[in-house]
Amino acid sequence: MSHWFKSDNTSPAAPEVLAALTEANSGYARGYGDDAWTARAEQRFSEVFERDVRVFLVGTGTSANALALATLVPPYGSVFCHEQAHIVRDECGAPEFMTGGARLQLLPGEGAKLTPAALLRGIADNPTAVHTVQPRAVSISQATELGTVYRPAELQALSETAHAHGLLVHMDGARFANAVASLGCTPAAASAASGVDVLSFGATKNGALAAEAVVFFDPARAADFEFRRKRAGHLFSKMRYVAAQWLAYLDDGLWLRLAARANANARRIGEAAGTLRLQPVEANEIFVRPGAAGIAVLRGQGFEFYDWGADGSGEARFVVSWDQTAEDVDALCAALRALPDTAST
Amino acid sequence: MSHWFKSDNTSPAAPEVLAALTEANSGYARGYGDDAWTARAEQRFSEVFERDVRVFLVGTGTSANALALATLVPPYGSVFCHEQAHIVRDECGAPEFMTGGARLQLLPGEGAKLTPAALLRGIADNPTAVHTVQPRAVSISQATELGTVYRPAELQALSETAHAHGLLVHMDGARFANAVASLGCTPAAASAASGVDVLSFGATKNGALAAEAVVFFDPARAADFEFRRKRAGHLFSKMRYVAAQWLAYLDDGLWLRLAARANANARRIGEAAGTLRLQPVEANEIFVRPGAAGIAVLRGQGFEFYDWGADGSGEARFVVSWDQTAEDVDALCAALRALPDTAST
Amino acid sequence: MSHWFKSDNTSPAAPEVLAALTEANSGYARGYGDDAWTARAEQRFSEVFERDVRVFLVGTGTSANALALATLVPPYGSVFCHEQAHIVRDECGAPEFMTGGARLQLLPGEGAKLTPAALLRGIADNPTAVHTVQPRAVSISQATELGTVYRPAELQALSETAHAHGLLVHMDGARFANAVASLGCTPAAASAASGVDVLSFGATKNGALAAEAVVFFDPARAADFEFRRKRAGHLFSKMRYVAAQWLAYLDDGLWLRLAARANANARRIGEAAGTLRLQPVEANEIFVRPGAAGIAVLRGQGFEFYDWGADGSGEARFVVSWDQTAEDVDALCAALRALPDTAST
Amino acid sequence: MSHWFKSDNTSPAAPEVLAALTEANSGYARGYGDDAWTARAEQRFSEVFERDVRVFLVGTGTSANALALATLVPPYGSVFCHEQAHIVRDECGAPEFMTGGARLQLLPGEGAKLTPAALLRGIADNPTAVHTVQPRAVSISQATELGTVYRPAELQALSETAHAHGLLVHMDGARFANAVASLGCTPAAASAASGVDVLSFGATKNGALAAEAVVFFDPARAADFEFRRKRAGHLFSKMRYVAAQWLAYLDDGLWLRLAARANANARRIGEAAGTLRLQPVEANEIFVRPGAAGIAVLRGQGFEFYDWGADGSGEARFVVSWDQTAEDVDALCAALRALPDTAST
What integer is the mean pLDDT of D336-342? Predict the structure, then answer.
């Protein structure tokens, strides 16, 4: 019997979200977002972030990230980001495609986080001229690809450095809910109030079927997003179904409750992992190094998960879903505790 | 009170489709199409078209069309298509974007249909050299943007002409169900068996929430589609929800029943339109020319529809949905009959 | 023995141009346009056009046109142009490539010229929405691809129409010298003073080796041209050789003298063509319809020229170079006079 | 008085090259490469490389590199290259532009050289899936951006590793002459015979005005290059002037004589640099670290050169041209000898 920790996208949608979608399936509605659900959803985002935002709903995180970057960065531009970022490693070049060939400039950083120092190093290492790509943005992930979370003060420092050098700040928030739940701060503090200019806000991994949003904290920056979205095939005709998911997701704090539950289970697993653990567990992901043998043991016990890092690294990633059962979590905790300590390998 | 004839995308999803989606919302499943629903759906397409096909599920018709063309046509290529085609007039340049800048070469034709003669004229008018774009495909719509339908023999003739000149044939089947229901032939006869190479097969307008498919009748042609889909942000992580829609849609002929119902209602309206009618009603769309005054009258009566053609044309498009009520249809028939005959204007 | 009328690009460079290039081949100079020749050339353009212009030198007309359009038009934009325009028929999709997939929207017009009426028709036929490409520019050729020339008043009327609809005006001036010489007006009157925003100014066809320039009449519009030029590989390291050609070309009216000579010879040929002639001869090109038989006769007599129009049109194009010999011109006049009158075919 | 060591592109063209260009400036010739000079030049490349090659002439190194890569790599592909490569740091994203958004994947390496180990590391660090870009090529520079040169055995080992992993090998040969002269081997041994698939062969920096070539050692790989070249505006109409430069450049070993002279002068300067020297001097470039103070001293003495590396690195690059005078070389040797030893800083 399988225990699913491969990704939070292997989980189903939350009942509240499916119910909202079902309820929206009644009567006629104008297409392409000119409907009541979308209007209400847009309003909700402004409430959640405590400011007037301009928001665009899409169906995948990759489209949210790449379209957001295409709006911020010209074809001859570049984006500083962490070398482990999802936009680098998991989107098959979508940012390059949507921007018309802009470049991702990779920076190192502990826990998949960028620091002002790393950014300044990147800027210094890449003096600009007509012969070079032109840096225009920084993209960070919240929570990061290694399950860590930026504190508001870290965001603030990074954003100030970015803005001082003419760079806009994009946040990949595929797991934004997990980050906010982990920080215990307001959504604004984890993004806009800390200097983020544009947020890719994901719901899919945390209880939706397929619902992502690009949130422009300065509506003026959104100028041509709608054309880019349409042109890339990401303007849904029956938009109400995406909007309805968002309405349920944001309603009465559902998104934060689901994320907090996943985070708590992840913390439990992280503690069980002991010295195998590679990163602090601040969201719903646990990174461990069981070695090749340990990985084989875990697979043999029915755990579904991804190998991580370079070929042969002996590392693995476990992701906890919003609805992960206590049985699954218990089983993984026990299995990790039973592994020999190979962290020193 | 409104009568909705603006587009078939204003209608909700069919109960069977929503039920399937709800049923799929249980337990875990691997992401990105590596799940049981997607596997079954893929199998169903091969059955429906009576041959081994390679199929890719996406969420919008624009992405289906543009990604299909990007797979067939290089950046320096071109696509012959009707000057009224959806890919020309309603996708904000998605084909150009996805192909890396290939060109649509526009051809005229009655009822938004291409003929072998028009295609040959287009080929002759555009002699090729290193200085020109290189024609590589023809794209047609089935049903067309003017609500007409290609007969299998027409498709066959057009495909033969295309193939003889080294052009592949793409079919935009956003309303493929309406076309097949109208023809009373097999799905294969309306596409692959008549020479079509790649089909954008839509379900969204005819009872799904958001479900489209790109069907390659020669699997070898699909070689790099999966990378293009991912890169464009169109690979859903929770693919089961798209696949489940398709399973219900194709099950037990639901798709053809829904389409046949819409077609029958459209024919009724077409008859009521009398001399206002501009095109034969062969699918679920009715094109009329009530003039500016007639348009105002209809809008005043609560009918939702699009103006059509150039600014000031006095033309209008009505689209009948799968679940359009008899009341809506009766009301529109009556309203059209009550309009003065302005067809000669 | 051959008589060369295939294109003005079959001719060599003028002695003055080659001398300037030779003279520039001495000593060291900073690369990429940061040299004295380029600085002087840039200055000369402002003098020639009687205003402060921003100019960028490139090596081909295709790069000049496509880079200019890429600066004016976003990827989701479009450009209205004549259906016979060089950017449509002879640049292998360079405008689509450089813009990131913008569209050329084709308009008809006598003598390959656009009129305000045709432009207004094009605008009316293409109502915009988020679903459509967004018209942003008009591109015209001066002289046109059919050897005709826009009068300043025609330009003015067209530019006013364009600007009133938010469209910028690009002029493909591959044969701008021939147009100005033909009009007998100032270069400004044939372009900037008549509302043109950006000019692709060619020298190659009229006595240079490879020298083209993109002239922005409003320097503010040139903002990112330099990055696009570099990125497309069109920033020459040894720019002095392009600049030196321009200095000689513009010096003491050489460009207009060479063009006037070619124009005069073309007019002679046009008169000789009699009823075979298809277009008024206003620059250095002559279009005739000798029919297939006549074409074969002319080829047999050693004339080099292009067939024109669709396959089998029986039409031909003759282009007169700046240095065309009297013998060549006399021979062509005689040959055309000797052909039977097939214009009525 | 200035001493020019900024780049070899600050030097003029060799007299033999200019003479050939002047000689070509006579009579008419068909455009776009359909001329006798181009035919002869193409033939010469096959002789030089001792095999049937397919060659395309262009005007800049950036276009040669980017168009070559665009022919080898799809939009969703990637290219492994050194992190200091010209295609990374000096082409404003041209490879991304020409390929339609492929990615450069950066690898470290001593002396700006890639090793099989570094390549294998890069491959292992970037496991592929539908979610990732697809590596398709390796690009190396010969001579490298740090003035070092790959031995044939090094090339062979790297090419074998590349080919074993399905990667084609592109060589940026902007200074290929300097590399071949330095190695004392055949041109083939420094490229095709050692596994290189496509070479960007530069002449501009070593005595031409503007002449580069893309050489496909397997003509079948060149399939669509001609369309890409045209579409990017890099097909010269008066191609004879580029071809004539190549004919003189390759005639009687001129290219190797000029390069050998520059190399010898560079070696002299490298010896004078002593411990300031950062890299072995194997071609015509010298990299030193005089520190900020030393750099200021050298600038004050009239030396023109580029700062190198990150802002504030205290490093500098000197490039020796084919015609650099003994006075220039002597002056630089003396100035470097007079600097305090700051290499340990």
Answer: 85
Q: C16: closest CA among C264, C284, C302, C209?
A: C209
Q: Do D130 and A104 touch (CB under 8 A)?
A: no
Q: Which of D74, D75, D226 sits opposite B130 (nearest CB)?
A: D226
Angle, helix A254-273 to helix A240-250, in steps of 10 degrees? 70
Of all residues in chain C, what percent carry a pLDDT higher than 70? 99
What gap in Å lies between CA D9 and CA D12, rounded to an integer?
Answer: 8
| DSSP β-ladder status, A3-4 and A303-304 | parallel
Q: Which of C76, C224, C228 sits opposite A228 (nearest CB)?
A: C76
Enumerate the residues of chain C whose CB falls inside 8 A of the CB of residue A134.
Answer: 227
C-to-D residue pairs, Cβ atoms closer than 8 angstroms: 149
Distance CA A151, CA A109 (A): 15
pLDDT digits (tens, 9 = 90+) for C55-112: 999 999 999 999 999 999 999 999 999 999 999 999 999 999 999 999 999 999 999 9
Q: How far apart are CA A227 and CA A224, in angstroms?
A: 6
Neighbours of chain A (3+ CB pairs under 8 A): B, C, D
Distance CA C64, CA C77 (A): 18
Ramachandran class of B211: left when φ > 0, alpha when ψ lies in -120 to 50, beta otherwise: beta
**Model confidence pLDDT, tens digit, residues D38-87:** 999 999 999 999 999 999 999 999 999 999 999 999 999 999 999 999 99
**What is the pairing mode between strands D54-58 and D306-308?**
unpaired
Phi then psi for C29, rounded to 5 degrees?
-155, 140
Closest Cα in chain C to B99: C101
- C28/D67 CB distance under 8 A: no
Q: Interface pTM (ipTM) of the complex?
A: 0.97
Answer whether A75 touches D (CB < 8 Å). Answer: yes
Strand order in the sheet with C285-288: C285-288, C315-319, C306-308
Q: In the beta sheet, which residues pair with residue A316? A: A288, A307
Query: Tokens 């043109």 belong to which residue?
Result: C196
- Helical H segments across chain C, by residue range: 15-24, 36-49, 61-72, 86-89, 94-99, 116-125, 152-164, 176-183, 225-231, 240-250, 254-273, 291-300, 326-338
d(CA B261, CA B326): 11
Calpha distance A291→D224 (Å, rounded): 47
**Structure-token pair, residue B298:** 């209809």
CA distance C201 to C45: 10
Peptide bond into A102 cis (omega under 30): no
Specify the amino acid at residue A265: N
Q: How confident is the model at residue C343 (pLDDT cuts 50, 70, 90)?
A: very low
Nearest CA to B215 among B344, B84, B41? B41
DSSP annotation string for C129-150: -TTS-EEEEEEEESS-TTS---
| Best residue in A34, A96, A103, A130 for a mutation probing chain C (most C CBs within 10 Å) | A130
Residue B33 vs residues A175, B56, C240, C254, D240: alpha-carbon distances, Å: 21, 9, 57, 67, 55
Nearest in space to B107 (alpha carbons), one of B93, B118, B91, B120: B118
Interface membership of D75 toward A (CB under 8 Å):
yes
Closest CA to A233 of C131, B204, D130, C105: C131
Distance CA A81, CA A140 (A): 6
CB-based contact A97:A233 (threshold 8 Å):
no
- Residue D326 CB contacts under 8 Å (≥ 6 apart), including other chains: none
Q: Does B28 touch chain A (CB under 8 A)?
A: yes
Query: What's the pLDDT tens digit per position in A216-233?
Result: 999 999 989 999 999 999
Q: Give me Rg for the CA atoms of chain D.
A: 20
